[in-house]
Specification:
Elements: H1 5-8, H2 16-20, E1 25-28, E2 36-39, H3 40-47, H4 52-60
Antiparallel strand pairs: 1-2
Length: about 80
């Protein structure tokens, strides 16, 4: 479950800020809570349309397995 503003927020995963540190904070719009910040990777993860396991592997830089961008992930 995520707040509705997440669906309206886009993160450019090719930007310098994201590639240097995916946890770079961005300011969010949250009603009644004032200025708040959240990491770019969190927003990108919540908006991802690909396999979330692949997104975690990319974020963590895991190269130990076969799962990659073209892998088929099964959810049980």
């Amino acid at each position: 479950m995520v707040e509705s503003w997440v669906a309206e927020t886009r993160v450019n995963q090719d930007s310098d800020a994201y590639t240097k540190d995916p946890d770079t904070p961005i300011q969010i719009r949250s009603v009644g809570k004032g200025k708040q910040w959240v990491g770019m990777a969190s927003v990108a993860f919540a908006n991802s349309t690909s396999c979330l396991r692949v997104e975690l592997i990319k974020y963590l830089g895991d190269t130990s397995g076969d799962c990659g961008e073209n892998a088929t992930c099964y959810i049980f």
